[in-house]
Design goal:
By secondary structure, the protein is an alpha/beta fold. The protein has helices at 13-24, 39-43, 46-64, 79-103, 149-152, 176-187, 207-219, 261-266, 300-314, 343-348, 364-369, 397-409, 414-418, 428-437; strands at 2-9, 29-33, 107-110, 113-117, 120-123, 126-135, 139-141, 154-155, 168-172, 191-195, 222-225, 230-234, 237-240, 243-246, 249-252, 256-258, 269-270, 273-274, 287-289, 328-330, 336-340, 353-359, 375-381, 387-393. Helix 1 (13-24) packs parallel to helix 9 (300-314).
């Protein structure tokens, strides 16, 4: 029997963030993990996919090199080394996390966990008794019920082995994961078809920006089929409502499903995830849940924020989780990122708005980088000038969005934000110009 203050089930972003924070508060923590330390994000999600995305981004830059007077002959991709680089990146991040856990005295138990009571966790025959239990069991890839699909398709979890480049790839689902992998494989030379059942790719992204992204993807070898369903898959052919599409490989990217198995045992789950309140506590005192297992939005940084709230609550503090200002990033080519309301969402809420736009082509830095394709769009409340949403497509969008999240989160109005001096020449000037444009203060647009 193992006794501790807190048992954390799962070592992904939510699980390890909760364990680390609670250990820093001085509590004894046991972390239980069935697979690799770091969970989906470190081992099969954020880290390895971004490592491969970086490689394809470098390849695209090399292909642009002649525009800068650099001759590049005989460039090729060594797929074995690319896979090794990806795996080494994962090992480095996982090793760093493991060292952090060890340094704080967090005990790691490997094995399958099941809850035998509100304060009891069974781990392959061992019993863990804890004052509090944090469930961070993550999620699993979904597989639509389409004839022939499950027998043929792979999910993003299956892309962590040897890397091969299919001549033609069909991706079912035009969300974040689908669009990111479409960019990767098109960058490596595949002909890619994305089949999306909705009228727009990437839920939550501003409709105007989504349209520009579709155009950019299609110029880079990705065909996007909107308002289209896959009805059957057979013998290398996807039968869709828009006609048949032949493929060498088919990837399912239709989202993920919360893993609620631990919550099911205690009757605290719903079809949408384990049910928690604003403090991340379930209806059972001293049982908490964070991360993908509680449902959307399934993002690593959201899981870590939820872990901070749960940890503070366990220590008796007053913390509440808010999802009002969560940045979202897509590591596509070009990148897109957003935070806050889209134009359509603001209109649907009846808010009178002003909209500011600035093209990346207006930035000397973007032009010098050869990355002039892109747009920043800012949504402001016309009444008090408060910024409600920022949507970006273009080089560095995933880095620029954090400034926007900070300002929206603090309720900064566009006039005050627009007075902040931004260094020249930087891509951040595109963002601040769009902010100024939202209140009629732009210099160049």
């Amino acid at each position: 029997m193992v006794k501790c203050d807190v048992a954390v089930v799962g070592s992904g972003p939510g699980g390890h963030a909760a364990a680390i924070r609670l250990a820093r508060y001085g509590l004894s923590v046991v972390m239980i993990e069935e697979r690799e330390v770091g969970g989906l994000c470190v081992n099969r999600g954020c880290v390895p996919t971004k490592a491969v995305a970086l490689a394809t981004s470098l390849l695209r830059k090399i292909k642009k090199a002649p525009e800068f007077g650099i001759v590049t002959d005989g460039v090729r991709v060594n797929l074995d080394w690319l896979a090794r680089m990806r795996d080494l990146t994962v090992e480095r991040v996982r090793s760093s996390l493991t060292l952090c856990l060890d340094s704080l005295g967090i005990r790691l138990l490997k094995g399958h966990a099941s809850l035998t009571g509100p304060n009891e966790v069974a781990v392959d025959g061992k019993q863990v008794i804890a004052k509090d239990v944090v469930i961070a069991s993550g999620s699993k890839a979904s597989m639509p019920s389409i004839r022939g699909l499950a027998e043929t398709a792979i999910t993003s979890d299956d892309l962590m082995g040897p890397i091969s480049i299919p001549g033609r790839l069909v991706i079912v689902g035009g969300g974040v994961v689908g669009i990111e992998w479409a960019s990767v494989f098109s960058g490596l030379g595949s002909r890619v078809d994305v089949v999306e059942m909705e009228a727009q790719i990437i839920p939550g992204l501003d409709r105007e920006i989504a349209g520009y992204l579709v155009d950019a993807l299609q110029r880079n070898g990705v065909t996007v089929h909107l308002s289209t369903r896959v009805e059957e898959v057979s013998h290398g052919r996807a039968i869709t409502t828009a006609g048949p599409i032949d493929f060498d490989r088919i990837l399912v990217a239709t989202g993920r499903i919360p893993d609620t198995s631990l919550g099911d045992a205690l009757g605290i789950s719903s079809p949408n995830g384990i049910i928690v309140d604003e403090r991340m506590q379930t209806r059972i005192p001293h049982v908490w849940a964070v991360g993908d297992c509680v449902g959307a939005p399934m993002l690593a940084h959201v899981a870590m924020a939820e872990a901070e709230v749960a940890s503070t609550s366990i220590m008796g503090g007053d913390a509440r989780m808010s999802y009002d200002c969560i940045p979202s990033c897509v590591f596509s080519y070009p990148e897109v990122a957003w935070v806050g309301l889209s134009e359509d969402a603001a209109i649907d809420e009846g808010i009178p708005i002003s909209v500011g736009r600035c093209s990346f082509a207006a930035s000397g830095k973007a032009v010098a980088l050869g990355e002039a394709e892109g747009l920043v769009k800012v949504i402001a409340d016309e009444r008090d000038r408060r910024v409600l949403g920022v949507h970006i497509m273009g080089h560095g969008a995933t880095e620029l969005i954090s400034e926007a999240a900070c300002c929206i989160g603090m309720g900064v109005d566009a006039v005050a934000w627009g007075r902040v001096v931004h260094a020249h020449p930087t891509l951040s000037e595109v963002l601040i110009e769009a902010v100024r444009a939202a209140v009629g203060k732009a210099l160049y647009v």
